[in-house]
Amino acid sequence: MSLRLILSCAMLAGVLGPAQTASAAQGPLAMPAARIPAVPAQAPQGTAVAPAVRAPAAPCSAPYRIDRTLPNGARWQLCWEMRTIEGLTLNKVVYTPKGNRPVSVLRSTALAQIHVPYDSGTPRYHDIGALGQSAIPLLAADCPGGERREQSVCVTTRPRGHAYLKSGYEEPSTSAQGHDLVVFAAFQVGWYTYLVEWAFSDDGAITPRVGATGSLAGSTTTAGHGWPIGVGSRDFEESHSHNVFWRLDFDIQGKAGDVVEQYDFSGTRTAKRKLKRTTFTKEAKALNRRTRWWRVVDRGVRNADGHPVSWELNNSDSSQYRGPAGEAFTRADVYVTDYRSCERLATVNPAPRCAGSVDRYVNGERLTDPVLWVNVGYHHVPRDEDADPMPTHWQGFRITPRDVTAKNPH
Ligand SMILES: [Cu+2]
Predict the structure, then answer these.
(1) 13 phi and psi, to 5 degrees?
(2) pLDDT tens across 185-212, in order?
(3) How far apart (Å, rounded) are the C-alpha atoms in residues 398 and 171?
(4) 213 CA distance to ligand 1 centroid (A)?
(5) Active-site residue (options: 127, 180, 258, 403)
(6) Residue 192 C-alpha to ligand 1 middle, in angstroms?
(7) Would you tell me which CATH number, out of the four given (3.20.20.70, 3.40.50.2300, 2.60.40.10, 2.70.98.20), belongs to the domain 3-163+176-402?
């Protein structure tokens, strides 16, 4: 065991206290960490193109305020907080495309669960319940080119490759390099270290993702449920899924007028393809399809072409884990619910007067202020390279602007 893990154990034990550490112990190799066993558990008016509005008063104090103008002129403003239950939480996210007016995007977003069922059937962890208490103090090297806030949050800027490259016929080619504002924190949960990151791109895209690193849990199983790790074929490290849930409370220029639409394109083995739009008027569970995507649109907010401003959600990189009957929350890839403050986690929800899991938040209510829950699975089959430290494996999704500006605002 590395020194760092011993320190992490001590740190977590200190934070959680003896009662919780004792109940969380999962066997000789499990750490007394924050893992939870499986139990059924107004923005300013105006638009991106409207007459000038005064910049809103700063909604949070300096250490928690992020205001970054990227090299192409795009600006992101948001607030962060370290919540005890959800960990890193981002609030009041506002995007200003170069040369345009600010438009608010998200009222709040955070992780809503990391469900980790092992392939033999047990254990089945719910890793989020007290994530904020597991935040790891970051070293300067952990936050390259950036600034650390309150020790555990990194705010930095990162290149993202070509924003565009266009060859000219009679003129020289033009190209530009893009950048992301990146906000992240790291959390120690059992043997795993989770990197929880949001990238805000200079083209208006938002990429939430989770990286799992640290160490494998060390749980061994039979050949049918794992992969041989170490010399020979004696120890089979158990395969498992990381089913990560995010909660996204969209508020495009305030909560009024936000509508969720699902897009499909019919026409398999035919020359034609046809667009089909489904508007969700009530709370809904949705499944991934190859060409399916969703958007949150506010018809009261228009770009200079008169098109309603929206953000598009793509969730095409999920392994789509489907668990047994007792885990109905794994049976959909996107949930759309009406805002309710006590609906915070996708499973093991801590509020007693609220349902316990996201599948039960969907109960036929009319959508007036939609909240999206995105479920992205990754099936982790261990390999020799995972020992030790385990290379980061990433999973996430992307939200891209659709008709926020009338053309590329570069
Ligand atoms: Cu894993």
Answers:
(1) -60, -40
(2) 999 999 999 999 999 999 999 999 999 9
(3) 34
(4) 8
(5) 127
(6) 8
(7) 2.70.98.20
